[in-house]
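Q: Can someone sanity-check these two? First one:
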Amino acid sequence: MNKMYATEYTHRHIEELTLNHWQPLSTSLYDGWVLRFAKGYTKRANSVQAIYPSTLDVHEKITACEQFYTSNQLSTIFKITPFVQPEELDQLLQDKGYVVIDRTLVQLRRLEDLKAPEHLEVHINEQLTDEWLHHFCRFNAVNEECRETMTQMLSNVRAKTAFITLSVDGLVAACGLGVVEQGVIGLHDIITDTTYRNRGLAEQMILHLLHWGKSHGAVSSYLQVVEKNAPARRLYAKLGYTDAYTYWYRIKKYIP
């Protein structure tokens, strides 16, 4: 296996894991494309993942996808990755008036030489709890309807999970999610309460998650960070993450 192919294979594998680790409520397969639906909660769970080869006319497929999402009262969103099929899909969507949003970096690191965390006031539960969900929704101002949707989405994850909270003097200050599958731990929903930011707590929490992942067979880790989020990118660089590939979304707004 040559180096270029090995890298593409690794990155495509990571892309598949990102889909496994952030589950929608329902999925439809359409000629090599994966259509995900979750009542509009997050773009990742409500978009077309065009990552496998197809045979039908691409223009007809785009129209059909628009009909699928419109019938569910959702905007039509395509996730554009380096593995998109067909390769010209991004240009075709641009020509049809789709707008680019949320350029995002997928970053990777190996788990050798992982330093030990210093902040020890953490709790990891391998099942979703009401307490974790409460703090996540509080930090992110998630409403009740989206909370119910998120509960179902997280319950759909079939890989091993770690729901972590980090506390300061007995008060929960940060939370996050780690998911381990096939030797890789993905980090999701890393969030710190605004009152406790810029204290290095997210770094400590991530170190705990990475050690947990390593104890469950992970040898590498991925995360996703919006390109414009400079503070998060600085943190992840400090933790040893480097850019692997970039993706973005093409969106056509739903008009009732």
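And here is the second, same format, sequence then tokens:
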Amino acid sequence: MQDAPIIVAGSPHLSANEAKVRFITVMIASGALLLVIARVLTFPLKRDEQFYIMGGVLFSPGLYENFGFSHLPNLPLLFNVMFEMLGTTHYVLVARLIIAAGWIAATLAAWRIGRDIARSTAAAAIIMAALLLNPVFLDQTGMAATNNFLPVPLILWGLWAFVRSVEKGGEPKLALLTGLLLGTAAGMKANYAVVIAPMGAAALLMPTSLILRDRLARFALPMAAGAIIGLLPTLYFLAKDPAGFFVHTVSFHRGPQLGFWSLVSREVTPAITPRAKFIVASGVWLGGASLVLVAVLIYSAIQARLLRSRDGVLATLLAMLVLAAAISFIPTPAFSQYYTLPIPFLLMVFAVTVSRMSDPERALSAPVFWSAAAAITLAGLPVTAPSILDGVRPQKWTGIAVHREAEKIAALVQRSGPIATAGPLHVAEGGGSVYPQLALGPFVVRAMKFVPADERAHFAHPEALEEMHGVFRRTMPAAILTGFDATLDPVLSAFAKEAGYRPMPMPLRRSSREERDGAAVYVRPDGAAR
């Protein structure tokens, strides 16, 4: 008697039941994605967005020396290209839509990784759930237009291309795509350069079916070429002024920023000590969706009998995962978003682990995978579901609200000249100008007094916060806008009162910081010196 054929995940033909399961999975994931996008579009404006989005508005060869930008240039370049293509001053709206597009790309990558590599719809469901409904991505990390989330889809697609290239015996186009995507991600957030060493070693050792010469021609060189292309903006600024680029992107974080935070650490409690960093990291890695994913990964590794096996692809991904976790502890002070770095690698390690199971092992593991995906989904839905109420009303979107408020501010000011504020987006969206010292928000000016004297030469406008009153007296502000930064607002308010500026309350609903008290537009009095 012949047994009936069993349709498994790797089979080229789908049973009606499997097709139905895939359809339901895709529909649920699509619904979750829509909720996430609604949350992105309605999430309150965060202080970091003043830095990154304004970096896009002001992007030029002088971005670093003129304005003190202190991160790698790929993200502001992307923003600038989109702003110029669309010819709009709706900067926040466009930036948030780019983040939403990143979520779509990441979700598609999660599905492809689950189907192409893990060869399991249940595994794909876990990967998508751990991405879409992970609490660590549902706060500022994944919602705001910063450099924290956009590298994630690039990393996921890059790792997908890497594994597929190895599986195909070294496919040059996929190797080129791997390097391009990973290089672009590293050019957005320097911490993702962690992939370079393991990937370089892998390119020399894999695919094992090829001799070294063929590995170089089909795998290593295309990957290196792609990485160079992805890093071209960074290489341009590095070649233009090596010492200055180092001062802005490395020294500024190790000295001035740390100096500023050391003064206010008791007030805002950032993680500065190793113990504090470990507490923050454990909350990200061992909580919620991440903990479920780790548990399922361990279960899968045991099922696939991988604990003592030798697997080049898996070893490469594990090396990336470990290095990503280690490098997360380097930035000081540390915030929770810094510890999301290993998550894309964890998702990929899980997918490759599942792929090493036999078909019967995957079938037996499916109930565990579905249960894990359901648990993550049920835990994450209460966070995202309320966003749909405002998400279906564009007038409630943060980008629309910011632009509306910017136009109101411009109508109140009605004077030429720069506006003094820690919230330059509200000026730029209204067509106004800001002081270069404050063009990226409060981040540069508040730390400038900690910049060593020999490094100040790399700043075109090296005035510290305590020197801004002198700057204002030389060029009187057309107006002063407060309500964005607890450190800078008192300085701005004090000058406004001293110079006789007239306060006009300006509630900043969706577009303010968490502490909204004191938000006001101070209008320059008639006859004030220009």
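A (reply): Looked at the second one. DSSP finds 24 helices and five strands in the chain. The beta strands are 418-421, 433-434, 479-482, 502-505, 520-523.
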